[in-house]
C-alpha cells in the first residue's frame, strides 16, 4: 500500500507542474488549426511580459476544419467563421493563458514532457520495486530463488549471426562425450575447426564430482570458483579446460590453425541429415560435413511432484549439473531439512555427502533418504551388500527410509510434507528427486531419426553412426555391443570412450565399439567400488572378500594417482592367460549378512554360468584384469581362484 501511495503522489506532482494548457482533444485537422492559432498566440507586450490574448483578434477556424462539436469550457459560445457565418460544428474557444511560443511548438513540447514524465514515473516505480527486500509469503518456508536452476542460461554469443553458418565438425552437446569427441578429432586433424553447440550456460565440465568431492570441502570460495579438493587434498577445477582454451565462434572460420568454439545457451531445433544442416531455435542454419549428437540425458521426476501445485514445486528440484549444485549449495547452508528421493548411485552418494557436509557447516540439517527398494543401490549390489551399505549410510547420520514410496505431497506451513505408503509422514524444507535420467532425444522426431523402443536413445550401429555423416555418443546413444547386444549406458567412462570413438570415426577411422565401459561410485573417501559389464542384482552372484587395509579406499587411490576420475587410469595387469585351469572343486557361494564387514572383495555376476559382470569392492587399479575375465567368455569351476588374480589377498 505504501508503494502505491508513493506512486500516486509522484504522478500528482508531475501533473501540477505541467502547463494546464493542453492541445485540443477534439478530432481536428491539426495542421490547419494550429497554423491559424499561431497567428494570434505569439503576441507580446513591448515590456517583454506576456500579453493576455485578445479573443477578438483571433481568426476563428472555419467549420470545415472541425470534426466534432466540442466546447472544452462547457460554454454555449459558437464562433463565426471568417465570412461571418455561424459554424455548424462548433470549435473550442481559444485558451485564456499566455504563450511565449506558437501553439504548435508548445503543444509538441507538452506532449514530449508528458511522455517523459510517464517514462520517468515508470522507471522510478520499477526501481523502487527492485530495491524492496523480498518478502517470504509465510507459506513456502524457504525464500524461492529468483534465478533458479531451471532458468534458461544466457546465450553466448547473444545473436546467432555470430555463429558460423558452415563448419567441418559440428558437435551438438557440450558434455563429456562432446568434449571427448573434440579431442579425438583434433588429435587426427590438427587444424580441425570444431563447433560445439551447448544448451548449458557453462563450458564443458565433469559431472561425477557434483555428488562426491565438491561437498567435502567447506571452503566457500572454492565453491564460487567451481573448484574442489580431491580425496588426496589436491585442488582441481570442474571444467576440462579454462575459458582461454576456446576461441570465439565468430573467429572460428578465420582461424588458420583451427580450434574449438563453444556456443552456449543455444538449442538445435532439428537436423536435416540429407542436406547436412542443423537448424537453431531461431531458424539460423549451420551446414556441416560431420555431426555428432551428444545431447546427454535429463533427470526424471515422479508424477506426484510434476503434478503438484507451483507453491509445492518451489521446494522440489532435480540434480544434474552445475546450476543445480550452486542452488543446492546455498540451500543446505540455510535449511533445517532435506529429503532425497531415490536409492541409486546419485541419491545414495548425495545423501552421504550432504550429511558429511552438514557436520562441517550446518549441524542442524537433517537429511532423509526415501526409496522403494530394501537397501541402497539394490538394483546393482547383491542384497546382503545393499543392506550393509544402507547400514553404513545410516551410521553416517542419514535418516534412511527404505521400502517406502511417496503417495501424496502437501504444503504445511513452512514445510513440504511427504505422505508415504506405510502411513509415515516426512516434513522437510527441500526435496531432491534422484530417480534416474532419460536420454535427451527431443531432436529425433523432427529430424527423422530412430529411437530405440526398449533402451531409449538414438539408434546407432557399432560405429556409432545414426545416419550418413551423423553420429551419436554418450547417454543419448543406443549402440550395438558385440558381446552383450544392444545397450544404452549412462556412465562417465562410456561418455569418454564413445565420444572418442565417434570423433575418430568422424575423421574416417571406421572403428566399431568394442570397449567395455566401467563405472564407479564412492560413499565418501573410505568406501568405493568399480564395476564393468552387466551388473544386475537379479543375476546369480559369487563373491570373495578379504580384509581391507588403509590402502584400500578411494582416498588412498587418488593420493597415489592424483586423479579423481578413476576411468582415466587402468594399471597394467598380469596376463589372465596364466589363470588357473578349471578344477573339480565346489563353488564357493559366499553366505553374507548386513552385519558382516566387507572390507574389500570381488563380486562376479553370472548368466548361464558365464561371468557377465564384475564389481570390485574397494579394489582399485584392477579393471584391466576384469576386462580380460569378461573377454575370455569361459566357465570357471572355482571363482575363488579367479579372485586371486585381483590380488585381494596381498598385504
Automatic annotation (TrEMBL):
Residues covered by the FAD/NAD(P)-binding domain: 170-497
GO biological process, one term: mitochondrial respiratory chain complex assembly
Reaction catalysis annotation: A + NADH + H(+) = AH2 + NAD(+)
Compositionally biased residues, Low complexity: 570-582
Cofactors (names): FAD
An example Gene Ontology CC term for this record: mitochondrion
Compartment annotation: Mitochondrion
Region (Disordered): 69-89, 137-157, 570-590
Keywords: Apoptosis, FAD, Flavoprotein, Mitochondrion, NAD, Oxidoreductase, Transit peptide
Top-level taxon of the source organism: Eukaryota
InterPro entries cross-referenced by the UniProt entry: AIF_C, FAD-oxidoreductase/Apoptosis, FAD/NAD-bd_sf, FAD/NAD-binding_dom, FAD/NAD-linked_Rdtase_dimer_sf
Pfam family, one: AIF_C
GO molecular function: FAD binding; NAD(P)H oxidase H2O2-forming activity; protein dimerization activity
Mitochondrial apoptosis-inducing factor C-terminal domain segment(s): 502-632
Main location as per UniProt: mitochondrion
Keyword check for Mitochondrion: yes
UniProt keyword Oxidoreductase, yes or no: yes
Family: Belongs to the FAD-dependent oxidoreductase family.
Protein name listed in UniProt: Apoptosis-inducing factor 1, mitochondrial
Originating species: Frankliniella fusca
Lineage summary: Eukaryota, Metazoa, Ecdysozoa, Arthropoda, Hexapoda
Amino acid at each position: 500500500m505504501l508503494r502505491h501511495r508513493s506512486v500516486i503522489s509522484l504522478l500528482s506532482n508531475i501533473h501540477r507542474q505541467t502547463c494546464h494548457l493542453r492541445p485540443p482533444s477534439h478530432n481536428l485537422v491539426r495542421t490547419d488549426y494550429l497554423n491559424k492559432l499561431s497567428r494570434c498566440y505569439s503576441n507580446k507586450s513591448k515590456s517583454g511580459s506576456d500579453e493576455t490574448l485578445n479573443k477578438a483578434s483571433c481568426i476563428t477556424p472555419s467549420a470545415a476544419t472541425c470534426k466534432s462539436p466540442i466546447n472544452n469550457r462547457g460554454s454555449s459560445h459558437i464562433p463565426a467563421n471568417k465570412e461571418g457565418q455561424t459554424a455548424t460544428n462548433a470549435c473550442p474557444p481559444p485558451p485564456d493563458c499566455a504563450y511565449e511560443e506558437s501553439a504548435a511548438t508548445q503543444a509538441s513540447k507538452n506532449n514530449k514532457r508528458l511522455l517523459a514524465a510517464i517514462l520517468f514515473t515508470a522507471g522510478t516505480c520499477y526501481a523502487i520495486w527492485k530495491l524492496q527486500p523480498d518478502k517470504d509469503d509465510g507459506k513456502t518456508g524457504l525464500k524461492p530463488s529468483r534465478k533458479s536452476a531451471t532458468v534458461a542460461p544466457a546465450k553466448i554469443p547473444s545473436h546467432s549471426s555470430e555463429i558460423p553458418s558452415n563448419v567441418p565438425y559440428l558437435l551438438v552437446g557440450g558434455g563429456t562425450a562432446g568434449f571427448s569427441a573434440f579431442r579425438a578429432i583434433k588429435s587426427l586433424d590438427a587444424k580441425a575447426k570444431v563447433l560445439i553447440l551447448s544448451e548449458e550456460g557453462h563450458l564443458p565440465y565433469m559431472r561425477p564430482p557434483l555428488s562426491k568431492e565438491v561437498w567435502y570441502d567447506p571452503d566457500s570460495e572454492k565453491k564460487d570458483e567451481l573448484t574442489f579438493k580431491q580425496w588426496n587434498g589436491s585442488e582441481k577445477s570442474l571444467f576440462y579446460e579454462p575459458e582461454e582454451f576456446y576461441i570465439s565462434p565468430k573467429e572460428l572460420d578465420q582461424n588458420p590453425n583451427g580450434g574449438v568454439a563453444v556456443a552456449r545457451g543455444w538449442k538445435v531445433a532439428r537436423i536435416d541429415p540429407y542436406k547436412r544442416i542443423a537448424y537453431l531455435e531461431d531458424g539460423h542454419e549451420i551446414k556441416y560435413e560431420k555431426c555428432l549428437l551428444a545431447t546427454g540425458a535429463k533427470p526424471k521426476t515422479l508424477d506426484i511432484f510434476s503434478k503438484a501445485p507451483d507453491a509445492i514445486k518451489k521446494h522440489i528440484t532435480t540434480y544434474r549439473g552445475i546450476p543445480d549444485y550452486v542452488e543446492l549449495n546455498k540451500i543446505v547452508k540455510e535449511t533445517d531439512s532435506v529429503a532425497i528421493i531415490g536409492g541409486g548411485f546419485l541419491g545414495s552418494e548425495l545423501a552421504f555427502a550432504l550429511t558429511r557436509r552438514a557436520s562441517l557447516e550446518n549441524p542442524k540439517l537433517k537429511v532423509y533418504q526415501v526409496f522403494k527398494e530394501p537397501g541402497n543401490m539394490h538394483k546393482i549390489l547383491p542384497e546382503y551388500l545393499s543392506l550393509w551399505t544402507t547400514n553404513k549410510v545410516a551410521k553416517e547420520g542419514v535418516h534412511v527410509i527404505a521400502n517406502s514410496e511417496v503417495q501424496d505431497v502437501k504444503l504445511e506451513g513452512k514445510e513440504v510434507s511427504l505422505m508415504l505408503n506405510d502411513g509415515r509422514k516426512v516434513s522437510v524444507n527441500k526435496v531432491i528427486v534422484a530417480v534416474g535420467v532419460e536420454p535427451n532425444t527431443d531432436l529425433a522426431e523432427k529430424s527423422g531419426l530412430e529411437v530405440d523402443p526398449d533402451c531409449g536413445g538414438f539408434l546407432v550401429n557399432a560405429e556409432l553412426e545414426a545416419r550418413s555423416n551423423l553420429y551419436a555418443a554418450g547417454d543419448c546413444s543406443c549402440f550395438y555391443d558385440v558381446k552383450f547386444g544392444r545397450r544404452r549406458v549412462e556412465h562417465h567412462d562410456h561418455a569418454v570412450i564413445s565420444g572418442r570413438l565417434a570423433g575418430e570415426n568422424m575423421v574416417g577411422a571406421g572403428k566399431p565399439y568394442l570397449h567395455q565401459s566401467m563405472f564407479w561410485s564412492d560413499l565418501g573417501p573410505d568406501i568405493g567400488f568399480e564395476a564393468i559389464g552387466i551388473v544386475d542384482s537379479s543375476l546369480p552372484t559369487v563373491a570373495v572378500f578379504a580384509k581391507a587395509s588403509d590402502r584400500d579406499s578411494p582416498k588412498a587411490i587418488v593420493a597415489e594417482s592424483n586423479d579423481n576420475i578413476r576411468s582415466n587410469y587402468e594399471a597394467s595387469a598380469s596376463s589372465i592367460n596364466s589363470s588357473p585351469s578349471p578344477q573339480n572343486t565346489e563353488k564357493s557361494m559366499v553366505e553374507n549378512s548386513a552385519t558382516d564387514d566387507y572390507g574389500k572383495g570381488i563380486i562376479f555376476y553370472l548368466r548361464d554360468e558365464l561371468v557377465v559382470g564384475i564389481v570390485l569392492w574397494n579394489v582399485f587399479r584392477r579393471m584391466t584384469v576384469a576386462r580380460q575375465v569378461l573377454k575370455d567368455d569361459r566357465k570357471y569351476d572355482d571363482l575363488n581362484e579367479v579372485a586371486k588374480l585381483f590380488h585381494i589377498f596381498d598385504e
